[in-house]
Amino acid sequence: VNMLRLLELLFFFYFLTHIPITVLFDSQILADELGIPRDLYPEEIVNITKQYVAQYKDPYFIDPPGWYKVFCYSELIFQLPFMFVATFAFMLGSKTWIRTPAMIYSSHVAT
Asked: Are 87 and 68 in contact (CB under 8 A)?
């Protein structure tokens, strides 16, 4: 296995793990605004989120400011669909067409 394939597998794992994180945790911040019924979330996930908020008193989960909600919306609208595409591309490997979208994604996430 060459170094490029190892990087592709690393990116594959990154995107694969971020799909459930975004869907199960980050989307809870917008659940009420989006009309997502809370009972759609697994009870264990809701409990983990409640425990996190109780322990760390994270203001972004307790009372998220508007700018943070905009970030969460962009994550659900733009980043989440890309995560599926990137997972597929990096799983297959040697897909050069993913490079430019991945650079755009990384620029969006880093800024």
From this structure: no
